[in-house]
């Protein structure tokens, strides 16, 4: 701001000659030259003097202008401290022109304030070959506050992706002013795209494995069982039974691998489901022998019911496999409101502290007949929901798995 800017503020209400006189007198009192650039603090001091030396309408105008200048100074300080690129625009025929930018905007887009202020925003940021009109309409597509993903070009010609948040407000004299903040999400979008491609390749690999391995495995298993029915030699039958058992193990490993690849990493549509209902349904799908289930919660959670049931089934199988056919399994939820989640505990021998982190690794198993994928699937399903899963000692001396969010 300079003398002319300040005079024009007063001239709107008291005329140019009177405004010039009172501003010059106040600047002289402060020892400020007429051509000196005036910062926000100087401008407020000038208004203080004008208010003090005058009465009536002039004093009122000086007071109101000082309040406006103080508010603008606070806003400028806030704008300067926003860590993301931020821009203030004024509109001419709905076209956004840069009024102010913060340091983060200058650093991110490569324009200093001198180059940016007064320039059409789309002249600065429109990517090559893109319809620059979109930069104008981005401000007007939605009423009130807007948030959208946009592509913008920096001064060096690099096109990056931003999350653009904007709002338009009415300032003095019905002048519209827009405020926009750009959050650079270029690297995040690249990672998302890489992950998408990886998942597509994984799905393709899973389809190949499912088709090319399962079909010959089914043929081998079928032929083995036919031979078991036809051959009476005990020694040969014993050997064939070992082959049949190996086929069954291979099939289980294949099923668990496909489950982990296809279903463990994602969840479908979620809904409010009863832990008690899902836990009970899962128990019916597992060979529980003489084991007993106790459910001590009637809580509901937001989850993919099918994936949640699979999580329970795998934990039940793990409990029966390690705690024995007559074990007791307890499903409960933490008391009070300090934590959200549920637990599955058993009264078996438990897991040594040094092994508790290993149990979630692919292929880890202390049972020679186990595939080592069951708990890995549990962890994948939990993480796909945004939950965590940990293992500790249960109150019954066995193992407890805590799922929390």
From TrEMBL:
Limits of the Histidine kinase domain: 208-405
EC number, UniProt record: 2.7.13.3
Entries under Pfam families matching the protein: HATPase_c, HisKA, PAS_4
Organism superkingdom: Archaea
Catalysed reactions, as listed in the record: ATP + protein L-histidine = ADP + protein N-phospho-L-histidine
Alphabetical keyword list: Kinase, Phosphoprotein, Transferase, Two-component regulatory system
Keyword Kinase (UniProt): yes
GO molecular function term, any single one: phosphorelay sensor kinase activity
Cited InterPro entries: HATPase_C_sf (IPR036890), HATPase_dom (IPR003594), His_kinase_dom (IPR005467), HisK_dim/P_dom (IPR003661), HisK_dim/P_sf (IPR036097), PAS (IPR000014), PAS-assoc_C (IPR000700), PAS-like_dom_sf (IPR035965)
Chain ranges of the PAC domain: 146-197
PANTHER family recorded: HISTIDINE KINASE 1 (PTHR43711:SF1), TWO-COMPONENT HISTIDINE KINASE (PTHR43711)
Name of the protein: histidine kinase
Organism encoding this protein: Haloarcula japonica (strain ATCC 49778 / DSM 6131 / JCM 7785 / NBRC 101032 / NCIMB 13157 / TR-1)
């Amino acid at each position: 701001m300079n003398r002319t800017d300040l005079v024009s503020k007063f001239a709107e209400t008291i005329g140019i000659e009177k405004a010039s006189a009172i501003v010059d007198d106040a600047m002289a009192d402060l020892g400020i030259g007429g051509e000196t650039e005036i910062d926000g603090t100087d401008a407020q001091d000038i208004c203080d003097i004008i208010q003090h030396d005058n009465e009536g309408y002039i004093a009122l105008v000086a007071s109101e202008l000082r309040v406006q200048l103080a508010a603008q100074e606070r806003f400028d300080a806030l704008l300067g401290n926003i860590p993301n690129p931020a821009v203030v625009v004024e509109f001419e025929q709905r076209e956004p022109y840069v009024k102010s930018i913060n340091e983060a905007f200058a650093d991110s887009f490569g324009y200093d304030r001198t180059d940016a202020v007064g320039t059409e925003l789309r002249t600065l940021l429109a990517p090559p070959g893109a319809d620059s009109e979109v930069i104008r309409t981005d401000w007007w597509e939605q009423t009130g506050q807007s948030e959208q993903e946009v592509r913008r070009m920096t001064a060096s010609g690099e096109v990056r992706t931003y999350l653009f948040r904007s709002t338009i407000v009415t300032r003095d004299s019905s002048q519209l002013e827009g405020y926009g903040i750009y959050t650079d999400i270029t690297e995040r979008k690249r990672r998302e795209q890489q992950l998408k491609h990886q998942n597509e390749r994984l799905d393709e690999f899973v389809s190949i494995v499912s088709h090319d391995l399962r079909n010959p495995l089914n043929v081998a298993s079928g032929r083995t069982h036919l031979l078991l029915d036809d051959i009476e030699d005990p020694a040969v039958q014993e050997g064939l039974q070992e082959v049949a058992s190996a086929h069954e193990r291979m099939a289980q490993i294949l099923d668990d691998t496909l489950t982990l690849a296809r279903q463990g990493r994602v969840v479908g549509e979620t809904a409010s489901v009863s832990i008690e209902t899902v836990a009970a349904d899962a128990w019916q799908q597992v060979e529980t022998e003489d084991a007993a289930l106790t459910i001590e919660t009637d809580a509901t959670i937001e989850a993919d019911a099918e994936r949640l049931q699979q999580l329970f089934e795998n934990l039940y199988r793990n409990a029966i496999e390690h705690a024995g056919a007559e074990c007791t399994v307890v499903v409960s939820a933490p008391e009070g409101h300090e934590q959200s989640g549920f637990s599955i505990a058993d009264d078996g021998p438990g897991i040594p502290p040094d092994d508790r982190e290993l149990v979630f690794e692919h292929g880890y198993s202390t049972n020679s007949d186990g595939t080592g994928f069951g708990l890995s699937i549990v962890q994948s399903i939990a993480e796909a929901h945004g939950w965590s899963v940990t293992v500790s000692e249960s109150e019954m001396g066995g193992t407890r798995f805590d799922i929390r969010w």
